[in-house]
Amino acid sequence: MATVPFDASSDEQTTGGSYFVSNYPPYSFWNAGSAKTALDVLAQPPAADTALGFYLHIPFCRKRCHFCYFKVYTDKNASEVDTYLDALIAEIRLYAGLPVLGGRKPRFIYFGGGTPSYISTRQLGKLAEAMQQAIPWDAAKEIAFECEPGTLTEGKLRAIRDLGVTRLSLGIENFDDAILKANGRAHLSKEIGRAYDYARSIGFPQINIDLIAGMMGETEENWKECVRRTIELDPDSVTIYQMEIPFNTTIFKEMKASGQSVAPVATWGTKRRWVQYAFEEFEKAGYTIGSAYTAVKDPAKAKFLYRDLLWRGADMIGLGVASFSHVQGVNYQNEHEFGAYCARTSRGELPVYRAIAPTPDERFLREFILQMKLGRVSRRYFEDKFGQDIHRRFEEPLRTFEKQGLAVLDPEGIRLQRAGLMQVDKLLHQFFLPQHQPQNGPLPPILSA
User: Strand 352-356 and strand 324-327: pairing?
Assistant: First the structure.
């Protein structure tokens, strides 16, 4: 397997395109012609001992962030939101009778977006009640809920807690008003502390804070202040993303219109250095680094089952417009337009839009690639589940990583060094099959330690 040459001196500018690896094979290989493979697998009973979870997509926001690449809507009124929730409930009821559930109860529920906390308490209660009736989640070990601070009141947070939410994730991103405004965020700094204090007083078992390294206008001084204020809040976990500029973002559209090829955000080297600084500060404050993106106060208490089970092959059914699913090894996506999604569910149809049925080798690669993002991979896990020795299969790139100070190999498996962890999404392309390699030019360079 060929390896990409390393360039320790380069500090590549951020340009347009996706960097974060969230699935395999890549989405560009999913197609409408394969949608039937998803419907076929849903009509079959599940494989033994396969965990089940649900993702509910709430695609509404007060504003669209300039860096946002998700399917979100900022122009829907209360009646249209109700129409969407009715469609979502109809989809939930369709799944409740399918053989693929096999009597299983979900291990995790994830309310994502968009902004789930955008909808009213009444709408949230209606959705949760309908789902509980169709697919009870009383056995769920984790119920996660994403929030935008400016949408939260004490009353809404109490309603969210009453649903049984165990993991509340606050999309703070930055603490500086000028930077929040420049990047199109709907909330301001004064709303952060208020929302956080409300959440703490109500007693959520886990509160997570999201930050983004490298936002437009961000400086070294600002980033250090964001880290300091996060530590001061003392959340149970912190998630840090490095700013990327996918092609469907407002930032990229403005770059294209003005003829710019370089995004007005920090370079990749700067973003990696800032994340490394944050991780070091969190470790000094007693946190443990749990992945390329997360710091956790107490790993014994603050879990993230949505990630950990999904990256080990669990079934996850994505509900809502444009939602992604992974069921019995098949990847598929729902209709990606509001009207088409609502119309199909109202007709009693599963709104599957496109899919891909990975080969056994691609299923192995999917789990290996995703688990690499944890920073440690078990050799025995892949031998037992797939009959693959990861040391032998990936001998050339792994030895190169080891020589460059990016990873350590031992009889138990692979452990990424901090330098490797900071750029793991770039490293992952070393393990893609040739036909799945990026076609849109080079990704940011791999930097040695």
Answer: unpaired
Q: Helix 360-372 and helix 379-386: axis angle, to 10°?
A: 160
Q: Helix, strand, or coil here: 125? A: helix
Contact assessment for residue 59 and residue 337, using Cβ atoms and an 8 Å cutoff? no
pLDDT by residue, tens only, the chain of 449 residues: 433 333 433 579 999 999 999 999 999 999 999 999 999 999 999 999 999 999 999 999 999 999 999 999 999 999 999 999 999 999 999 999 999 999 999 999 999 999 999 999 999 999 999 999 999 999 999 999 999 999 999 999 999 999 999 999 999 999 999 999 999 999 999 999 999 999 999 999 999 999 999 999 999 999 999 999 999 999 999 999 999 999 999 999 999 999 999 999 999 999 999 999 999 999 999 999 999 999 999 999 999 999 999 999 999 999 999 999 999 999 999 999 999 999 999 999 999 999 999 999 999 999 999 999 999 999 999 999 999 999 999 999 999 999 999 999 999 999 999 999 999 999 999 999 999 998 654 444 444 33
For 185-246, give the DSSP string.
Answer: -S--HHHHHHHHHHHHHHT-SEEEEEEEET-TT--HHHHHHHHHHHHHH--SEEEEEE--B-
* CA–centroid distance for 23 within its chain: 10
Residue 171 β-bridge partners: 210
Tokens of 346: 């109202």
CATH superfamily of 27-309: tm_1862 like domain (3.80.30.20)
* CA dihedral for 161, 164, 169, 171, sign (positive or negative): negative
Instruction: List b or e across 14-34, with b for residues whose CB sees 16 or more CB atoms inside 10 angstroms.
Output: bbbbbbebebbbbeeebeeeb
Classify domain 359-434 at the CATH topology level: Arc Repressor Mutant, subunit A (1.10.10)
Show me where the domains of the chain are located: 27-309, 359-434
Q: Are strands 315-319 and 206-213 parallel, antiparallel or unpaired?
A: unpaired
Statement: the pTM of the whole predicted model exceeds 0.70: yes
Beta bridge mates, 240: 211
Task: Give me 325's structure tokens.
Answer: 């699913």
From residue 8, give the alpha-carbon distance in Å to each of 89, 150, 242.
Answer: 51, 41, 19
